[in-house]
């Protein structure tokens, strides 16, 4: 199916050629309205597209009375509708940080609509924008990185990468967290991955999957343990459907039984040993956070 924000309009899936044409036109329009405009990198080898997804920040035509703490959503929606030459546009109800639009498909032979989703990074700094871009690239591949590192004492959230104080987290997870960085390059350095995920560096899903599995923090047994939790499975299917094949098919195909060939260490013991190594690496790279960590 195609875009589904406008049930009263016919918004079918698009060919790659049409997608690129619409993306180019709408990018030009959005750059007149926002300081930062990108299309987060899509998963490679997609045969068709349901919509065009944008990430934007820094609205350039806000009302003079608008404060930096309160975005002028009605004006943003109205101005974007004008720029797209459409009457169909609104702010999301369940996803209030996203604006949804439907525009006529270009070309007289195309008698249908194309859905365009515009996610707004409410903090207009370049740092915040690039962090959100990292989290959205490749259908939110950062969720897979986040899954790898969570049992190892690290969390990825909208504010950045945090390290948790183990002695505090059982009673107070938010209170156990110490901010490490809000730079995706630092995250990749910690997990042992290069920067291809930031620069559209994968031609196939296989390359992307192999990339994630090359991290020193990847352990197939971790995903076997997670799949034992029905809530995790439901969350994966609902929040990260493009990554279901990676977890349920690719990993067991390449690591039968969700195990490294010579793996004897139980996963809980591996978590404990690797968490200690992760903490040591984080403190080596970011020694300034150690005092806050040890005073928690």
The whole-angstrom Rg is 21 Å
Structural class: alpha+beta
Mean pLDDT reading: 94
Q: Roughly how much helix do the residues carry, as a percent range?
A: 40-55%
Q: Could you characterize the architecture of this molecule?
A:
The protein is an alpha+beta fold and 296 residues long. The strands form two sheets. The protein has a five-stranded mixed β-sheet with strand order 1-2-5-4-3, with helices on both faces. It has a three-stranded antiparallel β-sheet with strand order 6-7-8. It has helices spanning 16-30, 73-84, 126-140, 142-149, 166-169, 173-176, 184-191, 205-213, 220-227, 230-239, 244-254, 267-285, 290-294, and strands at 34-38, 52-59, 88-91, 98-104, 113-120, 154-157, 160-164, 177-181. The protein is globular, with a radius of gyration of 21 Å. The chain folds into two domains: 16-124, Beta Polymerase, domain 2; 127-294, no CATH class.
Keywords:
296 residues, single chain, alpha+beta, 13 helices, 8 strands, Beta Polymerase, domain 2
Q: How do the strands and helices of this protein lay out in sequence?
A:
Elements: H1 16-30, E1 34-38, E2 52-59, H2 73-84, E3 88-91, E4 98-104, E5 113-120, H3 126-140, H4 142-149, E6 154-157, E7 160-164, H5 166-169, H6 173-176, E8 177-181, H7 184-191, H8 205-213, H9 220-227, H10 230-239, H11 244-254, H12 267-285, H13 290-294
Parallel strand pairs: 2-5
Antiparallel strand pairs: 1-2, 3-4, 4-5, 6-7, 7-8
């Amino acid at each position: 199916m195609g875009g589904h924000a406008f049930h009263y309009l016919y918004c079918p899936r698009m060919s790659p050629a049409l997608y690129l044409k619409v993306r180019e036109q709408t990018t030009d329009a959005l750059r007149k309205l926002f300081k930062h405009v990108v299309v987060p990198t899509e998963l490679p080898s997609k045969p068709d597209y349901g919509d065009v997804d944008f990430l934007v920040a820094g609205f350039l035509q806000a009302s003079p009375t608008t404060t930096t703490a309160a975005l002028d959503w009605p004006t943003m929606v109205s101005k974007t509708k004008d720029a797209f030459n459409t009457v169909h546009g609104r702010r999301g109800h369940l996803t209030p940080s996203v604006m949804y639009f439907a525009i006529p498909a270009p070309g007289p032979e195309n008698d249908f609509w194309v859905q365009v989703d515009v996610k707004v990074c409410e903090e207009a700094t370049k740092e915040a924008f690039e962090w959100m871009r990292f989290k959205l690239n490749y259908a939110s591949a950062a969720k897979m990185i986040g899954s790898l590192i969570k049992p190892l004492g690290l969390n990825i959230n909208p504010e950045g990468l945090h390290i948790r104080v183990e002695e505090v987290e059982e009673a107070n997870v938010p209170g156990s967290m110490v901010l490490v960085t809000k730079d995706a390059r630092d995250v990749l350095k910690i997990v042992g991955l290069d920067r291809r995920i930031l620069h559209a560096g994968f031609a196939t899903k296989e390359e992307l999957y192999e990339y994630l599995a090359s991290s020193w923090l990847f352990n197939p047994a971790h995903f076997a343990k997670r799949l034992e939790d029905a809530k995790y499975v439901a969350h994966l299917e609902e929040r990260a459907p493009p990554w279901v094949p990676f977890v349920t098919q690719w990993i067991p195909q390449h690591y039968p039984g969700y195990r490294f060939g010579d793996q004897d260490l139980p996963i809980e013991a591996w978590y404990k040993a690797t968490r200690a190594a992760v903490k040591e690496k984080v403190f080596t790279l970011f020694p300034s956070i150690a005092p806050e960590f040890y005073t928690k």
